[in-house]
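Side project, low priority. Logging it here so it doesn't get lost.
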Amino acid sequence: MDFVTVNRTPVLTLWAAVVAESFGFEPDEALTLGKAVAGLTAQSNGQRLGIFTPSPEAVHKERAKNANAAGVLRVALLGRAVPVVRTDFGFRAADNEQKPIAPSSVEKYLRSQFGERLPEVRVAMETLAQSQGPEALVNEAFRLYEAFRPEIPEGKAGWGAKGKLSLQRIRELAAKP
C-alpha cells in the first residue's frame, strides 16, 4: 500500500517539521514549529471558510498580547510567521498564550495520526526536502506540500476530512530535477 489515509493537518505538521529540520532546527524545535505552522494554517482556512469568525474584541486582545509578548521571536516557515520563544531546552514555537509547545505532544499526535507508517512517511518527506536546494526549499516548501497533500472535498465539506497521502507522489517530486 503506497498511501496513507490521513487528514491534511498532520501531513502539514510533519512536512513543516521536516523542512524546519532541514533549515538547521533541532528535532524538538522543528516538531513545535511544524505544529504551529499547521495551527496557523488551519486558523486561516477556518476563517476563510467561515468556520472561525474572530470577534473585534478577540482581534484587539490578540494584537495587544502580541505587542506585549516580550522575548517572542518570529520564524518564517512555509509562508507563516511562527511565534517562537527561547526555553532552557532550545527554541519552541509558542501557542496562542505565548506558551511553548511541548515537542512530546506533537510526536504523540503524529504517531496517533500516521500510526506505524510515520517513519516511512517521514523518510519520504526528508528525501523530498533534501532533493531541494536550501533556497529552493525556502521558496517552494508550501507549493510542494500543495502538490502532495491528500485530496479532500472543497470548502466546508473538506474540513477535517481524511484523504489519501500518496508516498509515491512524494517520491516522484523528490526525483524531479
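Brief comment: The chain is about 55% helix and 15% strand.
Revisit when time allows.
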